[in-house]
Amino acid sequence: MNIAFFPSATITRYMARRFLMTSASVLGALVLVLLTLDLLGESGKVLAYRGNGDAELWRYAGLRLPQIIQRFLPFAVLLGTLICFASLNQNSEIISMKAGGVSAHQILAPLVLASLGIAVASFAFNDRIVSRATAALSAWEAADYGPVPRDRGIVSNVWVRDGDDLIHADTASGRGNAVRLTGVTVYERDGGRLVSILTGAQGVRAGSGWRVAQASRFDVASGKVIAVPAAEIGRGITPDRFTLADVDPEGRSFIGLADAIDELEKAGRPVGALRSVLWHKISGPLSAVLMPLLGAVAAFGLARSGRLFVRLVIGMGLGFAYFVADNFALAMGNLGAYPPLLAAWAPFVLFLLIGETILIRTEE
């Protein structure tokens, strides 16, 4: 019995080439249809801004294209696997290979190797192209598809924790010790119980803390408002804790997101949801490696038994079940219900075991 992982160079090249061509064809068809539908749905908003025309529509399509490729590449690999295996099964090529002593795992090996290459290329594509396109498109959408305003370093709706107290600022602008806060509200608490609320129009850096001038304090117990000429808050809170903007994980590269997480963590902000997305930037592209294993149910069994269609449905069901579980786990990670590593990797490991179990019990 041949126990080599790749028993034949000819079979390896043939299977990998056929799989890649089928997956690329399916991806091209999906992207063409979905981009057209998306452009039809969004073109009204793009053209609503006065002066926009064909050039802006092409710009939108160019920025949206990488996002569609990123999202539907695993679907294309799944459908490419099913189509490839169904064709090989119908032409009795699978039976011929098995009659020659090639095991089910050896038949899958070329597809797994090819899908691993797809995963590496997908990670590089997402990291270098999709993240930049997403950031540019998000900024353009926020400007209603008009000229994107220059980033002036103003952060709005900022929350910072100072022990039991919570500090809110409507805006934070500037850099370093020149940071200025507007619309300052301090919720002063004792043991988790709200004691008073301090409000002020502006706050500036003063020593190791912040000075709020012409403030007023509402005492919860007495229900009275007391004028405060000047109040010092946030002793030990550095300016960067106010000026760190909310991070869009989809618009950052892997290293850029990791750096942002470190900065936010130092600022005392929760980063569990961002860590889930960070790990998913690796597990997401690797889902392409699962697709040949989940779609392998369509490869084996006699085509003339009349159950090939049932096998195709089962393979498609397994693939789509993985995508549902992956999105659910990521949502739980964003809510903080799952730890980041579990949210990103649990569906991958679970369906890897499911696919391998089905393959061993039915074919090996």
From TrEMBL:
Keywords: Cell membrane, Membrane, Transmembrane, Transmembrane helix. GO terms for biological process: lipopolysaccharide transport; transmembrane transport. GO terms for cellular component: ATP-binding cassette (ABC) transporter complex. InterPro entries: LptG (IPR030923), LptG/LptF_permease (IPR005495). It comes from the Bacteria. It is found in: Cell membrane. The chain crosses the membrane at residues 72-88, 108-125, 282-301, 308-325, 337-360. It holds the Pfam family LptF_LptG. It is a multi-pass membrane protein. PANTHER family: LIPOPOLYSACCHARIDE EXPORT SYSTEM PERMEASE PROTEIN LPTG, SLR0882 PROTEIN-RELATED. This is Lipopolysaccharide export system permease protein. The lineage of its organism: Bacteria, Pseudomonadati, Pseudomonadota, Alphaproteobacteria, Sphingomonadales.
